[in-house]
Amino acid sequence: MDRYQQTIGTLGVSPTRYPEYLGRLFEGVPLQGRRLLDVGGGSGLISFYAALQGAEVTCLEPTAEGSNPEMDAGFERLRAALGDQAQVELDRRTLQQLDPAPGSYDVIVLHNSVNHLDEDACQALPDDPGARRTFVGLFEELRAALRPGGQVIVADCARLNLFAAVGARNPFVPDIEWHLHQQPKVWAALLEEAGFTRPRIRWNPMTRAGRAGRVLLANWLGAFVTQSHFSLTARSGGAR
Q1: Number of Cβ atoms within 10 Å of the Cβ of 173
Q2: How, if at all, do strands 229-236 and 196-203 pair?
Q3: How far apart are the C-alpha atoms of 160 and 46, rounded to whole Å?
């Protein structure tokens, strides 16, 4: 883990607070000996962390090789630094192109990527029937790719945010397009419609806020006035 922390520090990520955040993200989700799919894994921050915890990881990042040099460089830096400690398979296909065999994974993570599965449909949720069918179909594919009792983790910014509500630029996440996101209850309902069970929603404090943030901001109001970030876990079928 020391090499991981040192390397993410060179990528502009807090070497202490980000692993603490990932520990919270995977709370209650065993990784040792599990097969994990990281959808939209980018530079591999989550993929390599999970691999260090004993997971067999596929990082699904459909960006064509060379089209995002900074992201590609980050992934290669982590791979070079960790070597045999944490091996991650990089797959350039989209989720729709992947077509995994049933029961291929124990854990599927969509970290800041669920809205990118279909941005037009995401924007039209929750009332548009076609948009709902699109995401229910995608989530049914995810459920089929999980083994019985497997878990999906969806983490993203919610649509409702103080700064968006007053038409101001959010100083914490200035580039977020709030209309391309949805509330966690919308995703939870769609996951249940697709056959997932036991959805659990938590609001995430900003990692930069440190220990005080974990105490004061890990709730709906704290998120609403900062970056509106949440994590949602749900299970595929019954418990294993």
Answers
A1: 16
A2: antiparallel
A3: 26
Q: Is 229 helix (H, G, I), strand (E, B) or coil?
A: strand
CA 160, 166, 167, 173 torsion-angle sign: negative
Kindly list the strands in the beta sheet with 35-39, ordered across the sheet, starting from the edge strand earlier in the chain: 88-91, 56-60, 35-39, 105-111, 146-157, 229-236, 196-203
- Residue 71 tokens, joined: 């992201």
CA dist., res. 18 & res. 206, Å (int):
10
* Residue-averaged pLDDT of the chain: 93
Going by pLDDT thresholds of 50, 70 and 90, the confidence category of residue 214 is: confident
Q: Which residue's structure tokens are 């056959």?
A: 195
- CATH number for the domain including 109? 3.40.50.150
d(CA 181, CA 84): 37
Beta bridge partners of 232: 154, 201
Q: Which domain holds residue 74?
A: 2-236
User: Where does the pLDDT of residue 27 fall: very low under 50, low under 70, confident under 90, or very high at 90 and above?
Assistant: very high
Closest listed residue to residue 39, CA positions, set 105, 128, 132? 105
Residue at 33: amino acid letter: G
CA separation for the pair 149, 201 (Å, rounded): 18
Taking phi over 0 as left and psi of -120 to 50 as alpha, with beta for the rest, 127 belongs to alpha
Residue 178 is which amino acid?
Answer: W
Number of domains in the chain: 1
Give the integer Cα–Cα distance in Å for 38 and 28: 17
Does residue 131 contact residue 124 with C-beta atoms inside 8 Å? yes
- DSSP three-state, residue 17: helix
- For residues 61 and 41, the answer to whether their CB atoms sit within 8 Å is yes
